[in-house]
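User: Can you fold this complex?
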Amino acid sequence: MKLNAIENELLKNIADLHKIPSGAVNIRKNGEGIIRHSSANIEVRPKTDKPGIDVIIAPGTKNEAVHIPVLITMSGVVDVVYNTIIIGEGADVTVVAGCGIHNPGSKKSQHDGIHEIIVKKGAKMRYLEKHYGEGEGSGERVLNPQTLVMMEQDSMAEMELVQIKGVDSTVRDTKAKLAEGASLIITERLLTHQNQEAVSDMTIELNGRGSNAKVVSRSVAKDNSKQVFRPIVIARASSKGHVECDSIIMDQGKISSTPAITAEHPDAQLTHEAAIGRIAEEQLLKLMTLGLSEEEAEDVILRGFLQ
Amino acid sequence: MKLNAIENELLKNIADLHKIPSGAVNIRKNGEGIIRHSSANIEVRPKTDKPGIDVIIAPGTKNEAVHIPVLITMSGVVDVVYNTIIIGEGADVTVVAGCGIHNPGSKKSQHDGIHEIIVKKGAKMRYLEKHYGEGEGSGERVLNPQTLVMMEQDSMAEMELVQIKGVDSTVRDTKAKLAEGASLIITERLLTHQNQEAVSDMTIELNGRGSNAKVVSRSVAKDNSKQVFRPIVIARASSKGHVECDSIIMDQGKISSTPAITAEHPDAQLTHEAAIGRIAEEQLLKLMTLGLSEEEAEDVILRGFLQ
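Assistant: Here's the predicted assembly.
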């Protein structure tokens, strides 16, 4: 199975893949699995009751990765997929998801990825999900990821959720439930431009003693784009939670940020902070005195901010 | 007109008054105005269409105060009152509101104070509102203040909203709309204990260029009490807004904090921060080594925190 130039370009953008990886992999294109491999420790198998796959990672699997990117290259595709990922006890793995849409036509193309992830006792997961849209057509590029992460005792997860650019509309819904001693870090980075709209809902439940979660969200709204952030952290046990939202608005961009922290246990420690503003004038001027144009200077600053 | 011992005690708690003040005043008791005076610059007159008063402060009035406390000393009173306060152009005055309920019986006693305040061009207002409940009866003590502040060009307001203790249920709704150059500081301090519930909604609209608002909220939830904070700041112009919520939970207290900041203008600068946690152990131990009991040490820390 060979991919064409557009498909390779999408794969590079969303999964940093320059070729089809050798290990466990599932590549889905326009609503169908086109490439699927399991490895010795990571089983990738299609679901029998609905579209999507089960990824079963054997207990104790270390330093392996599984890639499950989704490509959409046609106009008018609406693809809904259900994936279940089970990280076995004591495993330490990387999951690379993500979706790239190249919409060449005038009809909407949409991907709704519904993920359920179970991180078993003592397991460690790194999760990367990049979203990207492009295409010469006027058709909308829509991505609505739903992710539920169940974290068992003493498990760890680091999730990096990135919307690079070109996504016209997104409603992101991320939920995590943490048992005793579980630890979660979510980093979200979002760029919207033109008339794009992005909504990010996050609900993190600190249910177990000693659990802790940190959410860092950085976003940029350019042109006429709009963003809404609603991260929620609920502490039901002696636990720690921190939410941080930093946003830059440019042009006529609009951003609304509503982190909610709820302490239902006297030993819960919850904090959040948020800031919305424009690029600092001094920073811009400093770069411009070095010879950059205003646009180049902005670009450097935004890249740094979203790094 | 003389007040009895209970009434004097309530007045002292909610308005720091040891006697009936000499200037402009309106004291409302159990649903009726019992004492009313105007001064040369401050007119206090009953509304003709509904319960409540109009307080009209002449333009340019300086260093004067008006006291409009409300007392409820009976069980089973539900008192709804509409007050309009107009601070004339260039005036600089203090408004002392507040409500004290002494509920001796088993029926609910409730006061809903609905305030509309207009701070005219260039005027300055200091506003104090304290809420307090007591009484040997089992009847609930309920206080639901609604306050709308319209701030004209270059006006200033400093509002101190305090719930001392003894209020079983409160839903506080504070709204402010700021025109060009207007400046608002709101300080809220709330203590709940036993099974008390408190909800505080705040909506601040930064509509004018150069307007700015700061909200500082400090609260303590003891025993089984519950608190919900929902401050919202919306910036529609080049303006600044900052929201800060600090909370201490003790025993089985629960606190939820959801500040929302919405930037609808590229030159808006909005920030918020919140923290919920228990009293720092070191602070407690330090005071206890000085000879205080645990209870006394807690009391000292809470007083400092709510100062």
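Chain A has one domain: 5-281. Chain A touches chain B at residues 247, 249-264, 266-278 (CB under 8 Å).
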